[in-house]
Write a structure and sequence with these properties.
alpha+beta, two-stranded parallel sheet, two-stranded antiparallel ribbon, about 45% helix, elongated
Length: about 180
């Protein structure tokens, strides 16, 4: 099955509009997710080489966009992708968010460019929310409570090391808990 066939199949199952509306919907999704170049390429599998990992993930997102969801939840959509492809995918997701959808995603250790693109950020440690506010306010906030990110460090890497199970001491977790959740 090709990328276009996969999205078309989903549209036939889940989209209630007319045939013309369905065709337009499919075209819009292919364009919105930058799948034009690979739309006639097989998805592939263990025996058949197909689309790239990023194209496969964007196709999966396209299948879900058929129903025009107002909320999109993605669990680690950049896992297994190289830095360029990850950034391209996040840019597409940001476009979806800017078009009025709510996009919620879990991402472990995004690069600094991806981190800069976040609107809101939730950080958790030991099952507790230790920060849930605007992403751009995270560095000043942690600096203010005594956890200054090294100057040239990726904030996401710093937060991951700060919140790893091995590094959290109960007193520090408590210190982070104060006024970090909106």
């Amino acid at each position: 099955m090709t990328v276009r066939e996969c999205i078309t199949f989903a549209a036939k199952l889940r989209y209630a509009g007319s045939e013309d509306e369905r065709k337009q919907k499919i075209e819009n999704i292919i364009n919105q997710l930058s799948l034009q170049k690979c739309q006639n390429t097989y998805i592939g599998g263990p025996l058949l080489r197909g689309v790239s990992g990023g194209e496969r993930k964007r196709t999966s997102i396209g299948v879900e966009l058929i129903t025009d969801p107002s909320v999109i939840f993605l669990d680690e959509p950049t896992t297994g992708l190289d830095s360029y492809t990850s950034q391209k995918l996040i840019k597409i997701l940001k476009g979806l968010a800017n078009s009025g959808r709510t996009v919620i995603t879990t991402i472990h250790q995004p690069n600094s460019e991806i981190f800069k693109s976040f609107d809101n950020l939730m950080l958790m440690g030991k099952g507790k929310i230790v920060y849930f506010k605007k992403a751009e306010l995270s560095l000043p906030h942690f600096n203010e409570i005594g956890f200054k990110c090294p100057e040239l460090a990726n904030p996401a890497d710093y937060f991951m090391s700060l919140l790893s199970k091995e590094s959290i001491e109960e007193e520090n977790l408590g210190k982070m808990d104060k006024e970090t959740v909106e």
